[in-house]
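Hi R.,

Here's the chain you asked about this morning:
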Amino acid sequence: MIRLVAFIFLTTCSVLAMAEWSPLTIDVWDPPFNQEKRYHTETYTALTGAERQWDLCAVIPHLKDAYWIAVNYGLVVHARDLGVKLTIQAAGGYDKFATQREQIEMCLESGSDAIIIGAIKSDGLNDLIDKANDKGVPVIDLINGINSPALTARTAADFYAMGRAAGDYVIKNLKADAQTRVGWLPGPKGAGWAEAGDRGFKQVLAEQSVEIAATEWGDTGLAAQGKLVAAMLDAHPDIDILAGTAVSAEAAVQALRRRKLNNQVKVIAYYFSPPVHLGIQRQVIAAAPSDVPGLQARLAVDVAVRALEKLPFPRHLSAQIQLIDSSNVKTVDLSGSLAPEGFRPLFSVNH
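And here is the predicted structure, written out as C-alpha cells:
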C-alpha cells in the first residue's frame, strides 16, 4: 500500500517537475575535472524521453537524512519522466564503503546500462570504474566526487565553493573576527565533498584570522553528529559559532536548546536540508548554501541517458548554488533542494 501511494504521488509530482526544472542555467567546468575551478555558465535543456528503456543503477551512501532523500526523489522523478528503468541502492552510511563497492559490483553483474555513484570515498573505486569502462558502461559521479579520470561525467556542485560560501557568511554577516571561536563539523573523513568543503571553509576563515577552536569529523547521521556537537561544547564552552553539515546544524540547535545557549552561539550549515530550512525560518540557524541536490540527481540521470544515446553533454556540470538565509527564505524556490512533503524514498522505477 505504501508503494502504491508513493507511486500515485510521484506520478503527479513528475508532471509538475518536468515543466519546472528545465531549461536551467548550469556551471560547466572547462576542462572537465580541472582543479583550478575554472567554469562558465550554459543553459541546459533536459531530454523529454529516452530512445529505449535503458536500465540505470544508482548507488548512494545512505537515506538517513533529507539531503539524500532529495537525491532519491530527483533520480526517481527524472527516470520516470524519461521512461527508463532505475534501481537505487543505499549503502547505509559513510562507514559502509565495502558495502558500496559490493553494490557497484552488483550493478555491473546485473547488466546495468549505466551507473550513477554518490561515492562514500573519493578514492578506492577506480578499479570498478575501469571495469565499467571495459564493459562500455557509462559511470556518472553524482555530488560527492570520485578521483578517476575515467569517469564519463560528473554532476556536482563545488563543495569547496559551498564551504567558502558558509565561511564568507560567517565573516560578513555574523561579524566573526580574530576573537571569535568557531566549532567546525565538516562531515565524514575521506568523503570528497566533506574534504572539499573543509578546505573552502577553513581558507576563508584563515584569510581573516578567525580561529577554528575545534574540528570534528564524523558520519552524517543525527545521532553521530549529536554526540560530536555535545563533546565539542563540553570541551570548548567558549565557542561562539557552530558550523558544519546540515545534520550538524540540526544537532547543534537541539544541543544549544538543552543547554540554554540559543542566544549565545550562532549556527550555520554549509549545505541545506528541511531541518535547516525550518531553523532558518525560526532564526535559530543563520544560513546555508544549497547545492540543489535534487537537480544534481536529475542532471545525472539525464547525462547518463545522453551518454548511452551518443548525444552531446558536458562532462562536468552542476546546477548553480543558492544561498538561503532569513532575507530570502520565504521567497526562494526550494524545489531543487528538497523532496516534496510526504515523499517516501523509492528503490526502483519500472515501466
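One quick note: Confidence is low (pLDDT under 50) at residues 1-19.

Cheers,
M.
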